[in-house]
Design a protein that fits this description.
Layout (H helix, E strand, L loop, with lengths): L4 E4 L3 H10 L3 E4 L9 E3 L3 H8 L6 E3 L11 E4 L14 E5 L4 H9 L3 E4 L5 H28 L10 H14 L7 H4 L2 H9 L3 H12 L3
Parallel strand pairs: 1-2, 1-3, 3-4, 6-7
Antiparallel strand pairs: 5-6
Bound molecules: NADP nicotinamide-adenine-dinucleotide phosphate.
The site of NADP nicotinamide-adenine-dinucleotide phosphate has 22 residues, from helix 1, helix 2 and strand 5.
Length: 211
């Protein structure tokens, strides 16, 4: 059976989506030049040039980049190269996304929505805050503890991170806990004083950013 479409780029996004879509989709290196519709799963910096090889029959996955004649489907998730449960995950669509791609994403549970193209950088910056920067905070918190000889048992910070996300998903801003949400000034001052200067600034800034 020939592939319905091809994915170019065997990185995190390409591999995860190809594994989920199965044999109906061909996963190829970025140097391939297949017939038919092509989904570009390559670094943002490579999209513009590669798209010129497939005029009118390719789409890309970049949440930030907008190209006038190349539609985009941006899955609002963090891929690890493996298929996952994506039901309910937003899919930001810009341009005239071919039905073959839209249907394929919907079959995996993604929820397409139209994102105005001029809002792509803002949308993507928000995604970076919620994903990569959140990861930096968790990794930084763990590194601070380790630097002082504290080794958390079991799953470490993961249960706290998961419970925090669950609370915020259910209750919005009211789901926040901690001394800033409670207004415990003495605790805030004591905790801040214990941090290295660079983290102290982040701690204070984030604590009051939504006030
Ligand atoms: N990672 C995520 O969680 C995520 C989430 C949403 C959207 N996206 C988007 O998905 C796209 C791919 O991201 P990714 O995380 O999968 O990237 P990645 O893991 O870095 O993989 C990209 C793949 O592109 C190919 N490639 C590498 N350098 C290249 C170059 N200079 N020119 C052309 N192709 C090159 C390689 O595949 P071959 O060796 O097979 O050629 C590489 O494995 C990006 O537009 C990104 O914004 C990613």
């Amino acid at each position: 059976m020939s592939a319905v479409f091809s994915i170019l780029g065997r990185g995190r996004a390409g591999r995860a989506l190809a594994e989920a879509w199965g044999a109906r989709v061909a996963l190829l290196p970025h140097s391939a030049r297949p017939e038919g519709p092509v989904l570009l799963a390559v670094p943002d910096r490579a999209v513009t040039e590669l798209a010129t090889a497939f005029p009118g029959r390719c789409a890309h996955l970049s949440g930030s980049l907008h190209l006038a004649d190349v539609p985009c489907a941006h899955p609002l998730t963090s891929f690890d190269g493996k298929a996952a449960e994506w039901t309910g995950t937003p899919l930001a669509v810009t341009g005239d996304l071919p039905e073959v791609f839209r249907r394929a994403f919907e079959a995996l549970g993604f929820l397409p929505f139209v994102l105005p193209e001029d809002l792509k950088p803002l949308y993507h910056a928000a995604a970076v805050l919620a994903s990569g920067h959140a990861a930096t905070l968790w990794l930084g918190a763990d590194a601070l503890l380790r630097a002082h000889g504290v080794r958390l048992p079991g799953r470490g910070l993961a249960p706290l991170a998961e419970a925090t996300l669950r609370n915020v998903e259910r209750h919005g801003a009211a789901g926040r806990t901690g001394p800033f949400a409670r207004g415990d000034q003495a605790t805030i001052m004591r905790d801040a004083a214990a941090l290295p200067e660079s983290w102290r600034e982040v701690f204070q800034k984030l604590g009051t950013l939504l006030d």
